[in-house]
Design brief:
Blueprint: H1 10-39, H2 45-81, H3 87-91, H4 93-97, H5 105-125, H6 130-159
């Protein structure tokens, strides 16, 4: 860790581990929907190409644009403020880091609308036939995998002392990010 790196505590680990666990558990739940039809030979060559296209499209749109360019840097910026937040934000650190609590009205609205949209999409995709569900779920797995890696990259950057210039969109007075430890 560099001299200017903020201190990482249990609350930071809890927050990021909680978010990573949510994403990883979704990946693991979707995996059988993809691997089963592929192993059983239920997908034609054209459908396998659609799986590949879905993986590429979701990796870019969800993984890179959604996570790496927006969600993950904001999560890292919010993590830098976590130790100075109240008890509720600390106890619910994964929700705080995802912008579902402790944010500006605009951040809360956007975050909860996104969650609602995801729930509706999940409900819709679950009604698709086996082949189409495999195609979509393969892309979602790819996007969530890129997103999970992105979260870990941005979080590591933040706690290595690299500046995170994204607005954390916090409610109330925004305290400065954690100060580096004083030189002895």
């Amino acid at each position: 860790m560099s001299e200017a790196a903020p201190r990482m505590g249990v609350v930071h680990l809890w927050g990021v581990a909680g978010v990573v666990w949510l994403l990883t558990s979704a990946i693991l739940r979707l995996w059988p929907n993809v691997i089963g039809p592929v192993r059983a030979g239920q997908l034609s060559t054209a459908e396998l190409f659609m799986v590949a296209g879905s993986v590429i499209a979701f990796s870019y749109a969800e993984g890179y644009r959604g996570f790496h360019r927006a969600f993950s840097p904001r999560l890292a910026a919010r993590a830098l403020h976590l130790s100075r937040r109240g008890l509720i934000d600390k106890l619910l650190a994964p929700l705080f880091l995802m912008g579902l609590i402790g944010g500006t009205k605009g951040r809360l609205l956007r975050s909860w609308i996104l969650v609602g949209g995801i729930v509706l999409l999940v409900a819709g995709v679950s009604r698709l036939g086996l082949v189409w569900r495999a195609i979509v779920d393969a892309g979602v797995i790819a996007g969530l995998s890129v997103g999970t890696a992105s979260i870990l990259i941005w979080w590591t950057r933040a706690f290595a002392g690299r500046p995170i210039t994204v607005d954390p969109e916090l409610s109330g007075a925004v305290p400065p990010p954690e100060e580096p430890p004083a030189a002895a």
